[in-house]
Amino acid sequence: IYVLSDFLRGQHLFSHLFSSRVSALSFRSTPLRFYLFLVKAELIGWQHIDFGFEWRCTSISHFGMAIERILKDDASEEKGERARMASFVGAMAIADLVKTTLGPKGMDKILQSTGRGQTVTVTNDGATILKSLHIDNPAAKVLVDISKVQDDEVGDGTTSVVVLAGELLREAEKLVASKIHPMTIIAGLLRAFQLCIQVLSLHHYQIAEKFKTDLMKIAKTTLSSKILSQDKEHFAKLAVDAVLRLKGSTNLESIQIIKKPGGSLKDSFLDEGFILDKKIGIGQPKRIENANILVANTAMDTDKVKIYGARVRVDSMAKVADIEAAEKQKMREKVDKILAHGINCFVNRQLIYNFPEELFANAGVLAIEHADFDGIERLALVTGGEIASTFDNPESVKLGHCKLIEEIMIGEDKLIKFSGVEMGQACTVVLRGASHHVLDEAERSLHDALCVLSQTVNDSRVLFGGGWPEMVMAKAVDELARTTPGKRSHAIEAFSRALVAIPTTIADNAGLDSAELVARLRAEHNKEDSNAGIDVISGSVGNMSELGISEAFKVKQAVLLSATEAAEMILRVDEIITCAPRRREDRM
After folding, report:
1. Under the GO molecular function aspect, what terms does this record hold (predicted)?
2. Is 30 a catalytic residue?
């Protein structure tokens, strides 16, 4: 950039510029009678121009190259408006993807993998859909993460959190387009969020008197948007009974879910104790009372020479027989060490070969092989034992105990049931269904209900459902926007519009007239102590208290918190830098 004084004016200047191989790119006059030239010089160093003085000419393009060389060749960066637009578009696309699965009439998605076997998943669970996607957009990945956190923390609301975050960003995009600074928008959103939490805290109710009845309502509301909605009464009872056995614990490890194809979903049942999906071996006792159980993870196949590539040369078959006898003796000693623990049931993570199985059968010990790792960890937990791998010190090994081990039949399959286990709250839910796809979705639905119920037992605050909390919060946020001076009021108003998008989406997904319903709902909420929400079954505005539609306070609180924080994080972005892929070095 050169600023040249008035005396350099005229054609003489241009002839000298061109003759010295410097091109004039633009010429602008200013009120101060200074002239600005953007020039691109092909030569670097001291450039002599015939004005009787010397001046330094540095290539602007060289500066650009120097800046670009900070990043590697394949790296890229997007700045300012483009970066913000890429973030908004990615986040809104993800929200629109899962929006149709929201509510009792939400639709399912089929997820098909391209790997070997091409597994198919049919689901309407937001977290399951999003974690199955391979996403390139960084802002979209933020929404996938908040959905996962919501699933881990409270189990339900995985779709709501993504839809709310997407709507907040949709509203924020309009404000940014009207030249409101992102930090002003963030300040407004945070103020509205704080008010929403205060409003929810004032409008919740405790479930103390009819504890089990209210838990049933929450379970039915959670299951109404899942595949189990047709039999929600049956499964709500299963979930409530299982959670009440936990006696206030949120550790769902002691509730096992077994899936067995066949029958209908209504044939599913809850069984006390622990069921292991294994068969009892041949010639072993089928029923054991007052069992002492050793849970182990050890090699019970014929011990091999454990040196890679080892060979044994012998000069007769008798020597081969000696090696086999030595291996058998080694295994017999190992079995004797295990039996020295005074057990009558041995459960192993790994295979048990025929010879040790025969030794266990002769000793009257039930030996169960190849129990999956999840199975033996849960078995050790519920029977009060520990997983052992060495058996030299019987006094240091903690055995598990239960009153009865027996073989049971479910459908066509034989399983082993452990009754009267040391951890009294342990139970097993056996799911029956038409196919593996139905069972997988039923398990996800039941897991969501169990998570919500276990959280509600700890934090007994409850809200009405059906879009009631969103309308209560939107009303309070609108009032705040009217009393807030400055541009922040626009952001607070935008938060209110984003909240109303939840009941709007619920109505749209049910094929109802959302504009009509939301307008009637807003009118109802202007009355004192209204319990109105959207009743998608009758297609009208209904009383949530009479309909028994309730949801956990903790779920709604987590949805608000995660969605607001995600929207704030994405709004703060003004540059996206994509790193160059790492190249493999050529190895000689």
Report:
1. ATP binding; ATP hydrolysis activity; ATP-dependent protein folding chaperone; unfolded protein binding
2. no
Q: Taking residues 370-389, report their average pLDDT.
A: 81
Q: How far is CA 507 from CA 105, 189, 469, 544, in A?
A: 9, 25, 15, 15
User: Is 456 within 8 Å of 215 (Cβ atoms)?
Assistant: yes
Mean pLDDT taken over the chain: 80
Told to judge if 125 belongs to the known catalytic residues of this protein, a careful annotator would answer yes
The catalytic position among 121, 123, 128, 158 is: 158
pLDDT single digits (tens) 548-565: 888 888 889 999 999 999
pLDDT of residue 13: 40
Query: Is 58 in the active site?
Result: no
Determine which one of 101, 128, 159, 383 is catalytic. 159
pLDDT above 70 for 16: no
Give the pLDDT of residue 309: 63
Instruction: Please tell me what DSSP assigns to residue 340.
Output: T
Pairing mode, strands 345-348 and 366-368: parallel
Displacement of CA 272 from its chain's centroid (Å): 30
Q: Give yes or no for a contact between 80 and 92, defined as CB atoms under 8 angstroms apart.
A: no
Q: Specify the DSSP class assigned to residue 357.
A: H
Q: Which of these is catalytic: 121, 123, 125, 564?
A: 125
| Dihedral sign from CA coordinates of 52, 56, 60, 61 | positive
| pLDDT at site 493 | 92
Nearest to 126 by CA among 569, 564, 563: 563
**One of 151, 214, 448, 535 is an active-site residue; which one?**
448
Count CB-CB contacts under 10 A for residue 579: 10
Contact, 256 vs 378, CB < 8 A?
yes
* 3-class secondary-structure state, position 395: helix
Average pLDDT rounded to a whole number, residues 441-470:
87
Q: What is the sign of the dihedral through the CA atoms of 147, 152, 158 and 160?
A: negative
The tokens describing 234, both together, are 């049956």
Paired strand residues for 540: 535
First-to-last alpha carbon distance for the chain, in angstroms, is: 50
Percent of the chain past pLDDT 70, that is, above it, reads 84
